[in-house]
Amino acid sequence: MEQDVTSPKALCVKNIVVSALAGTLTIAAMAQAASLPSRMGYSYYTEQFLALVLGLSLAIIFLVTGENKERARSGGATALDWLLSVTGLGLSLYVMLAYPSLVSQAMSLPWDALLVGGALFFLVLEGLRRSVGWTLVIVVLVIVGYGMIGHLVPGALQTREVAPQRLAVYLAFDPNGLLGLTLNVAATVVVAFVFFGQLLLRSGGADFFNDIAMSTMGHKRGGAAKISIVASGLFGSISGVVVSNIVATGVVTIKLMIQSGFRRTTAGAVEAVASTGGQIAPPVMGAVAFLMADILQKPYSEIVVAAIVPALLYYVALFVQADL
Predict the structure, then answer these.
(1) Helix (H) or strand (E) holding 148
(2) Contact by Cβ (8 Å): 222, 323
(3) Chain segment 258-301, per-residue pLDDT in tens
(4) 172 and 202, same structural domain?
(5) In angstroms, rounded to a whole number, what is the distance separating the alpha carbons of residues 187 and 191?
(6) 303 falls within a domain
(7) Residues 135 and 113 in one domain
């Protein structure tokens, strides 16, 4: 079985499936962001769309990350990865199709809601573990655990008593749970901005920003690091995604820093820190900015204006450090 799952034919199939899932996710998110279904007369719960996004995301995560780290790095996937991927997509599609009836019967805790809700919660935790490690998983478990024992805590931190089965249904189907504001913003706003950022990247936008940085900072002391900082700040302002920023500018700047005498670890660190600032560089910024606008009920333009000073301070501090 091991050899069968990692054969060239299996790898090709996996790549095709992942590309199809990612393409479907992008198209669905773009269509939702443009309100195309409602314009065509289709009416549905927003949570049904979010259930589709969750299922596609889980399917991609389990195939791309992989339980076996060595095989995942070589592009392979185990039978367990495929099983989790299909299960996550299947359960989410069930939620998408049956959501109206599940919501109307949620208070009576039907068996299918309990089963699907509990399974989806643990699949999301496993996807989190594979994507970002145990830290965030432990944070989520602590918060959920506190929700179950919070009624025993005296004082201002005391919560209402919630049965475990009711909590599972709440987390899975309530608009404040998995299918809530965070996933909605990520699925509609963030995906659209990342998509257009990638269009700019593929059309030569990264080269444009790199050329500006090299022409203005190439002759300065510590110029290679300053090129990285300026280029990452410029490109980050229109991408808002750390990984895209590193890929777009780091291809040039990391090599420049190494050739200029920087240690490889220092070059990588400078690029990573400079690209991270793209999340707070107006006007696009990262997903958190869109969440802030929705939660605070403020115009996005006010969030952008408020971010100008901290973003400038962030990059000025990096620039000064590079000069020193």
Answers:
(1) helix 134-149
(2) yes
(3) 888 889 999 999 999 999 998 888 887 877 787 888 888 888 88
(4) no
(5) 6
(6) yes
(7) yes
Q: Spell out the long-range contacts of 284-288 with Cβ–Cβ below 8 A and sequence spacing 24 or more.
A: 284/193, 284/197, 284/237, 284/238, 284/239, 284/240, 285/240, 286/190, 286/240, 286/241, 286/242, 287/185, 287/186, 287/189, 287/190, 287/240
Question: 68: Cβ–Cβ under 8 A, 6 or more apart, which residues?
Answer: 76, 78
The count of other CB atoms within 10 Å of the CB of residue 197 is 23
* Domain extent for 65: 2-179
Q: Is the pLDDT of residue 218 over 80?
A: no
Cα separation of the two ends of the chain: 56
Residues 85, 63 contacting (CB under 8 angstroms): yes
Structural tokens at position 165: 């089965």
State the CB neighbour count (10 A cutoff) for residue 151: 11
Cα separation, 21 vs 13, whole angstroms = 12
Q: Is residue 103 part of a domain?
A: yes
The tokens for 85 are 């991927």
Q: How confident is the model at residue 174 (pLDDT cuts 50, 70, 90)?
A: confident
